[in-house]
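R.M. (postdoc): so does anyone remember the format we settled on? I'll just put the structure tokens first.
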């Protein structure tokens, strides 16, 4: 079928793999409408006590436009890169460090196809697994750090606006999650929104913390499973390498290609979500 982020999906849709053979998993058609595939990494336990899960926030739609201060003939003078995608984020910082200036910042108006598909799939799987508790990582703190990294290139008032916009968007995602789980009969008090970065004091390794140290959040390592977008399976695998403890993960292939990487610019064309720095 092709690539799904850093994964390869077989032509028949029955397996997915990365370069490391330990991350070769079997897939089957998902029973959730509009979701492509799903499958388990490691064997599902008979009883699930705790589910670890989460969602990205701003993705490919969160874009920054920059331009070269002095034009150079026969070379591109403007670039548009996403702060939500690691490779593009580093390219953007390279341009800014080389003297480019930020001209516009585009923000998503609402949740897009990635969040809608992910939350719908997660809600059904939470209902099927019926855990006692769900730890859901909504990475507010990590994304605030991404914003702070552009502080030297934008005015303070714009930085404050970005932080406010992030909080607003995170709340929209959380409300959408709670509505969907309620629709499948899950009480909201079974879901704990966690902030591993705040626990650690910094965002480094925060995405791994629920898998490496679930005790931090008051749960036992026994009876834990992950329910994640396939792209996030790397977290449980890295935790396994560090702790030698395996956490089974139910992985979903939401849509091909990966919807988090799609730039739906119809979602960022609202004038209220385009922050201009051009004079």
């Amino acid at each position: 079928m092709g690539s799904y982020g850093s994964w390869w999906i077989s032509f028949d849709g029955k397996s997915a793999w990365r370069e490391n053979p330990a991350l070769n998993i079997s897939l089957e058609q998902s029973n959730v409408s509009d979701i492509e595939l799903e499958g388990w990494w490691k064997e599902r336990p008979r009883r699930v006590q705790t589910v670890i899960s989460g969602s990205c926030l701003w993705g490919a739609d969160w874009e920054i436009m920059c331009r070269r201060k002095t034009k150079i003939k026969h070379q591109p003078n403007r670039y548009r890169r996403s702060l939500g995608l690691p490779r593009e984020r580093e390219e953007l910082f390279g341009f800014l460090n080389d003297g480019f200036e930020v001209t516009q910042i585009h923000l998503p108006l609402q949740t897009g196809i990635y969040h809608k598909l992910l939350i719908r799939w997660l809600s059904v799987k939470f209902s099927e697994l019926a855990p006692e508790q769900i730890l859901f990582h909504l990475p507010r703190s990590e994304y605030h750090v991404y914003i702070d990294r552009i502080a030297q290139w934008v005015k303070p008032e714009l930085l404050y606006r970005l932080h406010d916009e992030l909080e607003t968007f995170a709340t929209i995602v959380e409300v959408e999650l709670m509505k969907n789980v309620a629709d499948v009969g899950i009480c909201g008090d079974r879901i704990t929104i966690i902030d591993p970065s705040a626990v650690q004091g910094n965002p480094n390794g925060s995405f791994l913390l629920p898998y490496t140290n679930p005790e931090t959040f008051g749960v036992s390592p026994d009876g834990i499973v992950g329910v994640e977008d396939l792209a996030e399976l790397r977290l449980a695998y890295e935790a396994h390498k560090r702790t030698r403890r395996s956490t089974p993960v139910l992985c979903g292939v939401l849509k091909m290609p990966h919807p988090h990487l799609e730039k739906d610019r119809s979602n960022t064309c609202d004038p209220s979500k385009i922050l201009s720095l051009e004079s």
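R.M.: ...and that's the designed sequence above, right after the tokens. Also worth knowing: The chain has a mean pLDDT of 90. The CA atoms of residues 65 and 80 lie 4 Å apart.
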